[in-house]
Write a structure and sequence with these properties.
The protein is mainly β and about 270 residues long. The chain is about 10% helix and about 60% strand.
């Protein structure tokens, strides 16, 4: 037997022994991939819901009074102020849209329309004379607001602000300069509102919220006349209302999902 044959024989024996040993080893399988990371709650979508709460503040006026008789006929009082506290309830509906960015900053738009019974009953007079029974009432109001917040998962604190509009009534008697002037007027007008709130997604499609709004309208204007005594014209000097309310929203990702129409991704 030659030296070359001996070497090849030894190598073949070694390879055969290694093959047998490898066959006896347990088979190796790659570990399964890790489960996907849980997806956090996404506020992006649309919503509509209902709300209700409390409102209170003040209604202020500036009056110009011309005396027609008495000790000083023809005398004029300019910008005589009067102010009345208001209180009552509000209830309404809201709808809007929300967009959540990858960094969890949230922007949105919300519109609401509400019935209100926020009224005053007893007038105040800067001069301390006379009395009266003027009722200033915020009867209807709506807001068109932007919202901005930061999402902590299912919790969304936010600030909000925008346009406020409403219908205001003033009727009864208002005391200015010791004279009670009859008042009966109503007006729709626009103003502004700012506030803040916290919304919590209890379920994927149901969220609850608590919200504070400060609203500002000018207030009504009109005239009052007491024959042979005095004539009064007045303008609103601020109808300020603080509103605290709670609400419930139904949230949906698209109108197609809401209506059950595949492909309608609005």
């Amino acid at each position: 037997m030659t030296f070359k044959a001996t070497v090849f024989g030894a190598l073949a024996s070694i390879l055969a022994a290694n093959a047998v040993s490898a066959a006896d080893l347990p088979s190796y399988k790659a570990p399964p991939p890790p489960p996907p990371a849980p997806v956090g709650f996404d506020w992006t979508g649309y919503h509509f819901g209902i709300n209700g709460g409390y409102g209170g503040g003040s209604a202020s006026y500036l009056s110009n009074v011309t005396f027609l008789g008495g000790a000083v006929p023809g005398a004029v009082w300019n910008n005589a102020p009067s102010s009345h506290g208001t209180t009552g309830f509000v209830v309404g509906v809201q709808s809007g849209a929300t967009w959540q960015l990858p960094n969890n900053v949230v922007f949105g738009y919300e519109s609401d329309f509400n019935y209100a019974d926020v009224t005053s009953g007893s007038p105040g007079s800067a001069w301390g004379w006379g009395g009266g029974a003027l009722q200033s009432r915020l009867r209807w109001f709506g807001t068109e607001r932007l919202r901005a917040g930061y999402a902590f998962g299912r919790f969304l604190p936010y600030v909000t602000g925008g346009l406020m509009y409403g219908q205001i009534f003033s009727n009864g008697f208002d005391a200015v300069g010791g004279i009670s002037f009859p008042t009966n007027t109503s007006k729709w007008q626009a103003g502004w509102t700012v506030g803040a709130g916290l919304e919590w997604a209890v379920y994927d499609k149901i969220s609850v919220k608590a919200e504070y709004l400060y609203t500002n309208l000018q207030g009504t204007n009109g005239q009052g006349f007491v024959p042979n005594v005095a004539y009064r014209s007045f303008v609103g000097n601020g109808l300020d209302t603080h509103i605290g309310r709670v609400g419930v929203n139904y949230n949906f990702k698209s109108f197609g999902a809401l209506l059950g129409i595949p492909g309608l991704g609005l």
